[in-house]
Amino acid sequence: MINDKYKLKKDEILSTVLSIVGMFICICGISYLFHIMGNDLSWGRIAGFFGIIALLVAVFGIYLVFADVEILRDKKKLVAMCVLMALSLAVYMAIQKFFSPFAVPYAFCALICGLVISRKSGFISSLIVVLIMFCSQTFFSGLAPNDYVTLCVGICSTILASYTLSRQTKRIRYIGVAFILAILTCLMTCIILFVSAEEADYLNAVVYSLLSGFISVALFMLVVPVLDSVFNFVTDFRLAELTSTDAPLIKKLFKEAPGTFNHCLSVSNYTEACASAIGANTYLARAAAFYHDIGKMKNPQYFTENQLDGHNPHDEITPELSTAIIKKHVSNGVLMVKENHLPQLFTTFITEHHGTMPIQFFYSKAQKYTDGTLEDTGFRYDGPTPSNKISAILMICDASEATLRALNVETREQAEQIVGNIINERLIKYGQFDNCDITMQELNVIKQTIVTVYLGVCHKRITYPGQQKNK
């Protein structure tokens, strides 16, 4: 019996079958265009080749089911990976036919799938493309030394690009990636030609094999922004762009809700430090903090940080209405994510950073006007509770930043007690981390990190001559 984690829903099975069949058709079409069209080949030979492709594609699908099933549950990633595999094969065959077989950028598929999909899927997708390349050469051109280059260089480049080079966080580092790939390809090519070919143009092989590493990285840099735009992926490169203060929505937040803007900046410093401390994605943590309160732009005057003139409109309305307005910033934030074509993952952080916590201030205010016991059900956020570590970090940092600043805490002991109470309340009293895989050790690291960042921000400065407080 198959474990439940491997089971797919009917629509997921359908999308998987359609995507893989579509990829198979595209690969067959590409192979026909470069190797079959115009050649006098028997139908049996062509059918045998297509059968090999079908077998490789089937193995690819089986691998995903048992090794990376989450890809099959994400239609966008599945389609993107199939498109990338077909595109990679077309690029490889075109360069081989019109340029040089030694210049084929075999690392391209592994680099790009490893970045935008996953390392495991990046490895298997690139390996399948390399095997299809090798089979097409041996089926239609006969086995030659160049074919061993395809197989050996392709597999080595795939392993290297998938597991060691695909997760660089700075574009400049990919120049080093290009050098590593170029040297590996050159050495492997020369060794294979020396062993298997009696006569070979080593100069030609060296020049083009060195060039292949740079072609891989150049294609990678060209395609990643296109994928980000077409499939709305959340790559580290895009997250860096979205967390720039020049990003359109961030500039709008600064103009319309400056207090919220500064709160988001402060929270981003906490979340980034906490994510780094526990080994989570710092780019994602920072972006989550930047955009978690964008919904406050709809009614900025109802949030304390934006009440610069001292007027509080909540003094004029009931606690129930105040609660509804405060809760509305979550749904407004979700709408703004869709309207501005931001990554869908941002809606997760927006809806989860308050979880199902009660809005304590207005609940306490309502109790004063109520005889007897008042349930807090109507004064809670709608949730859901955090489903990942970034959401949990954001929830803790959001509350800690506001509380520490409001109480103007000065000592480490006080700060540790306050942050500890915030974490314990959410962990034990309200069960906000029940659906999250965060550990007690990580929660303690987060607490210490928040306190360290806070004390660093609120450090005392000396008074310079001529400075004095205005009376």
Element layout with pairings:
Blueprint: H1 10-36, H2 43-67, H3 69-73, H4 75-98, H5 108-116, H6 119-140, H7 145-165, H8 173-196, H9 202-231, H10 236-242, H11 248-256, H12 258-278, H13 282-291, H14 319-339, H15 345-352, H16 360-368, H17 389-407, H18 412-429, H19 440-457
Describe the structure.
This protein has 471 residues and is an all-alpha fold. The protein has 2 domains: 4-231, no CATH class; 236-457, Hypothetical protein af1432, CATH 1.10.3210. 69% of the residues lie in helices and 0% in strands. It is built from 19 helices and no strands. Helix 12 (258-278) crosses helix 17, helix 12 crosses helix 19 and helix 18 packs antiparallel against helix 19. It is elongated and about 90 Å long. It starts with 9 loop residues before the first helix and ends in a 14-residue tail after the last helix. The model has no long low-confidence stretch (mean pLDDT 88).
Please state the average pLDDT score: 88
Estimate percent helicity: 55-70%
Look at the helices and sheets and give the structural class: mainly alpha
Distance between the termini: 78 Å
What percentage of the residues does DSSP assign to strands (E)? Answer: under 5%
- Tally of individual domains: 2
| Shape, per Cα inertia axes | elongated
